[in-house]
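Subject: two folds for Thursday's group meeting

Dear M.,

Sorry for the delay on this. The cluster queue was jammed most of the week, so I only got both jobs back this morning. I'm pasting them in the order they finished. Each block is the input sequence followed by the predicted structure tokens. Could you check whether the formatting survives your parser before we put anything on slides? The first protein is the one we discussed after the seminar.
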Amino acid sequence: MIATSFLSPRHVRRAALVLFVVSMALIVLALAFGVDVKGSRRWIAGVQPSEFVKPAFVVLCAWAFAEGGRVGSPALAARAIAFLLLPLTIVPLIMEPDFGQTMLISLVWAALLFMAGVHWFWVLGLGGVGVAGGLAAFKLSAHVHERVLRFIDPDSTRGMGDAFQVDTALQSILSGDGLGAGRAKVSSSVSCPTPTPTSCSPSPARSSAWSRVWR
């Protein structure tokens, strides 16, 4: 992070482009050769590439929308890039499947589109498409249906499925309070189930919510 802060805007864009291309290539490799964890292929060589796609995606989209606000043929190309980046990014994520990352990236893209000054007609129209897509995923995907119900009510699955992540998140929020419980308490209180790439990770809600602003 410190090294990145010294980069010029041009070098930040170039670094984001390289990171995006490499991360998307790793996502494709994860789909083909990655480890299957609970019906999803998101990991390869101990790395979840979608986590690196997010910052690169934000930088590239912000640049494309900014350039698209100018006049001339380069602006048209930039607008096309801004609109193509979203399906290019989320289609492989849906194939994993990783609907959480898909929703997060889509919301970030929609926020950037709104800040770019698009008309409210398009904002509401695309918002409606997003809501329809979410409802379709809830109805058609058993994985999404179970995860949503488990998040809303952990007891709704009637003991079926692994609710470790939801239980840990709820416990973290309830016991972390405004200032956090401290790193020592987190280390001593976390218990892990059978190890998987996503079975045990520190919950950010357990540490101070305020301290996360400065990271």
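Second protein, same layout:
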Amino acid sequence: MAGRLGVQHGLGRRQGGQGLAEFEKSGRIQWATDLAEIPAKYGVKNVYGEVGTAFANSAVANPRFAAAFVGTLVRGLGSDHVLWGTDSLWYGSPQWQIEAMRRLEIPAEMQKKHGFAALGAADGPVKTAIFSRNSARLYGIDVKVAQGAITGDKVAAIKAEYAKLGGMRSNARYGYVHRVTA
């Protein structure tokens, strides 16, 4: 990671209705747009934006703002410089954020007005880059090697044995069951 700058959450100063109103009026999101403009302004390629809290705070409550936020980062930094983050420490299980991002698309009129590209399918190149490929590249992780290690762990072995035995669930209970006697 030497020579690279990763920027963590906090990229949207105003979020929700106030942030969307500001964006609709000016085409800018305070802090997020400033960050997204750094590569063009200064000719650098080592700036990364992580979606984290700003996405979590807006994804469900104001998805139009979430679309503007992600669109701003992708337009300015490139889809290869936007990183997925959930701040799960604060929000609990990140599955709802993952699903929100998988479903997110920038409205066509917003794409046209602000020069945003479509985000595409949940498993398409843009979202795959944001969810995993960018961080893997940034941290020097070979995804295929890492995935290979997963297929050889104990959970994978148990799953394979389960499938070999027919993969059918059993509701049988095993062990001691205390029975109350009169």
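Two things I noticed about the second structure. The first helix runs from residue 16 to 26. The chain has a mean pLDDT of 87.

Cheers,
T.
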